[in-house]
Design brief:
This protein is α+β, with helices and mostly antiparallel strands and about 130 residues long. The protein has four helices and seven strands, in the order H-E-E-E-E-H-E-E-H-H-E. Helices cover about 25% and strands about 35% of the residues.
Length: about 130
C-alpha cells in the first residue's frame, strides 16, 4: 500500500488532481459517528473540490455530509482534510455539472438516461494537511 502524502496546496496542485478519476471521500456517519468512506467521481478547480451524486440526494454519504461537513479527500496518494458546503440550483447546473460532463464521458451518458435531475453538489475547501 502506498503512503499518503501531505501536499502543499496551490492552484496548480489542486487542479492537477483532475488527472485522477476517483476520490475516496471519508465522512462521519450521522448515526454511528464512525468514519465512512465512499469512492466517487470528483472535479477539482484551482481552490475547490466538487462532489455530487448523479442518483440524487438520498445516498447515505450525502446525508452524512449534510449533517457533519468535515471530510477527508484521498486522491491518489494525496490526502486532504476539508470542509464541505452544500450548493444547489442554477450555480450547480451552470458551473459544476459542466465540469463533470467534461471530465467524465459516462456522466454525459448518465445525464441522458435521467441522472443529475437534482442539481446539487458539495463544494469542498481543502485545508492544508498537518504533519
Amino acid at each position: 500500500m502506498s503512503s499518503l502524502t501531505s501536499t502543499k496546496l496551490d492552484a496548480s496542485t489542486l487542479a492537477s488532481l483532475n488527472r485522477t478519476s476517483l476520490l475516496e471521500l471519508t465522512v462521519v456517519g450521522r448515526k454511528t459517528g464512525t468514519p465512512r468512506t465512499v469512492t466517487i467521481w470528483f472535479v477539482a478547480t484551482q481552490d475547490k473540490i466538487y462532489v455530487s451524486s448523479g442518483r440524487g440526494s438520498d445516498s447515505h454519504w450525502v446525508k452524512n455530509l449534510k449533517q457533519t461537513p468535515t471530510v477527508t479527500c484521498r486522491i491518489g496518494s494525496t490526502c486532504l482534510p476539508g470542509v464541505a458546503v452544500w450548493v444547489e440550483g442554477e450555480r450547480v447546473r451552470e458551473t459544476v455539472f459542466p465540469l463533470f460532463f467534461r471530465k467524465y464521458f459516462r456522466a454525459r451518458i448518465f445525464r441522458w438516461i435521467g441522472w443529475y435531475r437534482e442539481a446539487f453538489a458539495f463544494e469542498i475547501t481543502p485545508q492544508q494537511a498537518q504533519g
